[in-house]
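Instructor's aside before we start: the two examples that follow are unrelated to each other. I chose them only because their records fit on one page, so don't look for a connection. First example below.
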Amino acid sequence: MPLKKGIYIVDEAKLKLDGYAKRFKFIMGHDIGKIEIVGRIDDKLILKQIHSRPEEP
């Protein structure tokens, strides 16, 4: 599945949730560590590195 479609699915699911369920996070593994997909603006993704491997600052 394309990443953009996955983000759309997560965003739509969050609209239907309430309470702690809205805190759902979209996290993926990467060579530098774990990255959270925070959101999107038009076709641009907003990413946040939440964990890095010891060899990556």
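Example two begins here.
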Amino acid sequence: MTELTILGYCSGDSVLHKTDVRFKIACLIMISITTISANFWALSMLTLVLAVTFMHVGLSLTSAFKTLRYVFVLLMFIFIARILSSPGTPVFAFSKISVTREGIYDGVSICWRLLDVIVVGILFVSTTRSLEIKSAVAWLLHPIPFIPAKRVATMMSLVMRFMPVILDQARETADAQRARGVENRKNPIYRMSKLGIGLMRRTFERADKLAYAMEARCYSEERTDPALDSDSNDWIMLVFVMALCIAMTVV
């Protein structure tokens, strides 16, 4: 799983690694909400902070680009859709198709916002253990009535744990089919169906093995979770993120 390390927990000694997971969730929510209406200068400010944080955490840029390569393809389609559908001052026109200045601006800003939110999520996942996420979600949902907090927290922690596993399974399945000459098939639907069926089968097999392992170990929702503890550094981090969000709003 060398290509997918940033989608799982990476051990480290950075400030973000030591921050209480509850504060990281609060920061994640605040940044995501603020990014929705951020302008060019606000996005530039946030991108600079994220770049510095990315280097401080010690994540590999090469691994990040390899992991996000399909995300870039999706962002490219979003950008093309925006520049072709937004009305405004034409920059290029051919027949009934026109590219507007406002469409280019909207496409760049939307893709930039999505990319920043994705990077924030990667920083959160790569610096937080799944057990800590489980404890924090259970702590946050505990005051809400009629919601099985620990069950929901367990499901979320399993999803976080399975994300890199599923992507790794997809890579292994694609490599196996490529070795068998599936690329000689010209029909893309055939290739995608074979990849999807193989990936689903292997994913369900891994899920069954995990369920059997949890059952064999007498897994219970009442197990003791890691203790959540905060200190002054966590509050400093929260204040810094709040100041950043305020600056992004007024800039």
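The chain has two domains: 1-6+20-128+238-251, 130-225.
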